[in-house]
Amino acid sequence: MNKVHIFLTVALIIAALGCSGGKKAAGDGVYVGQPVSEFISIFQKQYKVESGVISLEGDDYPTYDVFENEELLFQIEIHSDRPEIVYRIWIYSPKIKTDKMIGIGSTYGEMKSKYQISGVSEEIRLNVWVEGLSATFSMSVDYQPNIDWGRLNKETMPESATIQAIMLWNDDVLLTTDKRLIARNIDKSVDAEVFTAESFMEDTESTSIDTEYAIRLADKTVLNQYSSYHGTLDENSEFGADVIIANTTVRDFVFFMLSDENRWEPEKPVNLETGAYYQLAELTPEKPFVTDELEGWQRGFSYVDEDNVRRFFSIEFDDNGAAYLLEFKAIGWTEENCRVPDGVDELISAIVNAFQNQDETVLNRLLHPDFGVVFYTMPGTMPNVFLTDKISFTDIPPGYTRMPTDVVITDYEIRYEQLPEFDCESGWSKSAGIYCYFSEATETRRIANLMTEYMEISWEAHETKIIDNLETKNHYTITVVSAEPPERMDIGISLEFTITLIDGKWYLTIVDIRGYCGA
Length: 519
What we know:
single chain; mainly beta; protein yfey like fold; nine-stranded antiparallel beta sheet; seven-stranded mixed beta sheet; 35 strands; 35% strand; disordered N terminus
């Protein structure tokens, strides 16, 4: 049987512990934050300690490697900015066990019987965390054809999955010389620094961000410290997510997408002419904002600081894959287009209500006289576009027998965030509600090109003009997830439409009735 080896991510494992601390008691072992000289003096009495390297995401980092009879037990990772301090500890030998006798080679089933599983992450690699132990376990999973590898979580992970490596990232765990992982004896009555890998990085690489700006970045593992958050988090995404945390409350927070590469050159302001994807009247320290990492998209945000100055930032990544903030100048973005335009909420609500009430009169009043409406359909195995000058609940696009009018909505709040996705087995990735996302393009031209290539469709001049003009406008795409399951999976499962800014006014331009899980 083939084996899929999934190794630990280089991304920082964050465990912000607050302000409490204590004097670090001397111990017969090694811990994160320990002076390297102390570690060496303890372990070289019993083991062979050599300089080495660890390869993470294609880069090499300095280590001290500890051997017993030529077997590598563990590595001590050293950060270049503070080489005198133990940064992280990587464990590879099955001889090293926790106090509950879990170690390399232990199965996920054994872990569940000894610990409460606190989380599973697959943002880059497959990692597991447990309650009561500041460690990250990377897993090796035997290939099984019936497993949905894109949706593994703590309930669906095979119990046969085995621990491949363990990483310690907090100073409250001691790796003893007799190869045990135990809680460190810390005197909490004496104030002292609490050391974590994440706090170390803040001290070295991110000081300017945390002190100069009112906003800082964190990994999604900090979310267990908050009761709720803004934004969107796709737990099943193959990509990661970043948490934007306000050090102090900021006003008029706006999240958007970037495309200009000249943000790297401060003397050349970035041209931002698009609207907001997500906006908040204020972002507070108590409730952070979460944003998924999206392939091919560059994310940014803006806020008004305490001096009433609007500031712009992009989320960038260094050579090691660590996220950081880059402030840039912006042009083409005014306070008027730095928020969802007036009237958009009302227009979306009117469209949703009109579909529910099958009110053709209202819907047709919301169409541009020169554009009409474009239907996305799926009469077979390939998407189609169907252009018409009006919406009718009796004159349905070819191949369909009804319109999506059976969507049940109990919450009419419009959420400006990434749209939910649908899976034919597990359903929607988000709960019922109205979701709205900004875009600068539609699928219309792409689908029309497919129809021309494979169906030999010839477009009239006025149809070509409509299709091409839609690709030069700003849009909001809306997905309405029903609070009740549909009678059929291929239509009526949701209401999906697009509104477009034409000549300074927003119009209904596209209705997507392709449905899901059909032919």
